[in-house]
Design brief:
Order of helices and strands: HHHHHHHHHHHHHHHHH
Largest sheet: none
Structural class: mainly alpha
Number of helices: 17
Number of strands: 0
CATH superfamily: MFS general substrate transporter like domains
CATH architecture: Up-down Bundle
Radius of gyration: 21 Å
Distance between the termini: 10 Å
Shape: globular
Number of domains: 1
Helix content: over 70%
Amino acid sequence: MTRSDSIPSDRLATPARTASAALAAILLAHFAVDAMWAFVPSTLGMLEARLGLTSQQTAWLLGLGSFFSGIAQPVCAVVSDVMRTRRLAAIGLGLAACGVGCIGLAQGMASLTMVYILGAVGVGMFHPVGAATMGHLQQHRRTSAVSLFFVVGMAGGILGAFSWPRLVSMEYGFQLLPLAFLPIVALALVLHRLIRPLGHVQTHACVDLGQASPDNNWPMVWILFASASLRFSFNMALLYLYVRWLQGLTAVVHSNWTQEQIATASAPQVGNFNAATLIGMAAGGLLAGAFVRSGHEKWPMVCVPILFAPLVVLIPNSPITGAYVLAVVVGIGFASMIPVSIALAQQCLPHQPNLASSLMMGAAWVVATLGPTCAEFCIAHYGLQTTFNLTALTLAASGLVCLPLPNAKLGT
């Protein structure tokens, strides 16, 4: 079934040159956004030591960013769909640069929380509109386009996870941090100029489920949302586990060190593990775009997380080199189905593309707020290895919940 919108066709047509420039700007912006978003997870231990935070506060901080980034996505998606505008992507990019850039100026938990929330809201504003715009510009290659969008973001996250701990470890690194984000503010202005002329509605999007209306596809959307929520909860818990696991290894070797020395020494390695996981996530996105065919999404979404979940259990008992390899492979298992679920949701709700994208990303990130806090609770009460085991079960559950998905063909 195909539905058209009442917007005149001249507003939907996009000149090829404008479309190409907008596509490049969106991809570059996503690279920058995810590089910024990697800052707090990769420097969490350093922030904890620098500002005198407790382990509960750092777990809460990590979850807080997930919450506000997540809640901003569906809100901004609805506003974008109602106002038929894509400008919130550019505004979000600018806010993210200002918020994350000012983290280096924070003097305590209160100021850190305020600027981090600002950055998180900006990150959340960008993602659903950016993903929906990719679908608009590449309507006949939607899964591949969303996969490219996803992979470029992962590349930014890899660079950020690897670079931020080393940058802020330098003398005056935190104080100079705002200067690193000025070019991103300039990019936001360019993106705003390029994205403004684009049409809003997906004119060729369709769903073939034998239903009378896309409104009947909501049960499928909620299944996809449940799976995405479990995946992102797993991701946030794993990021927190990296910090505690690597700090514990450093403390065993250097038992006479202070907490600040342990955090500083382990931070680059935490960034390396985040980067390794992101490399796997990028590879997973590429593999999904290449091998998951339209109409055959169900069983990959069920089986891939279940098959990869046992590898999570092995990470804390492996040599560092082997753990890096496991982090990459786990990233593949966790992330390969993300672009697939986004593309499916966009097809289920073809006239609410921003909302569809935001449910698979932002709204799921709201649920993922619980990931670090639950991980900290489990570490305190059950130990590190048991927490890794429970985190692995969360990944497996993200596949199991997809069993009710229909086998009907979905395609554009």
